[in-house]
Design goal:
Length: 156
């Protein structure tokens, strides 16, 4: 699983030239990603962030790296930075349900209800079989947000 995620989006000619120049091999990139994931799971967020920022310098078009940086920054309370990372990941791979929902959660925290609803609705559309746990959670959140917007409209 980690190897699949590690190589996602990493086969461009530009990246291959950079790897040749730096003599970095895909297995080394995968090992760095595994190390970053280990730091993340251990709660060593500043260390994980450094690893994934280094990886980003090797492959700025990898949506997985942007998504992991978003997750790290979200946990650190760096919501503006996380929003940028999730948006970048989605610009590369728009079907990523996790990034879509995480970005929606950040919009929600920042009080941007319309944007949050848009992200949650898009995530739901990406899961027509209703099998993705996060998308199912988004279905519940959507109902609550739409009700909150109705109440807000009645108060104004």
């Amino acid at each position: 699983m980690i190897m699949e995620q590690a190589t996602l989006g990493m086969e461009t000619d530009e990246m291959k030239r950079l790897w040749l120049l730096l003599q970095v091999k895909p297995k080394q990139i995968a090992a760095m990603m595994a190390t970053g994931l280990m730091f993340y799971s251990e709660g060593r967020l500043p260390d994980a962030e450094k690893v994934f920022e280094s990886l980003l310098s090797l492959d700025c078009q990898n949506p997985y790296i942007h998504g992991m940086l978003g997750a790290i920054q979200k946990k650190q309370g760096k919501f503006a930075d996380a929003l940028i990372r999730y948006t970048q990941a989605l610009s590369i791979q728009s079907e990523d349900i996790h990034c879509r929902i995480n970005r929606g959660e950040i919009y929600l925290r920042l009080g941007h209800l319309r944007e949050a609803i848009d992200d949650f609705k898009t995530a739901i559309l990406l899961d027509p079989d209703k099998k993705h746990p996060s998308a199912n959670c988004a279905r519940l959140i959507i109902g609550l947000l739409e009700e909150a917007l109705k109440l807000r409209g009645k108060q104004n």
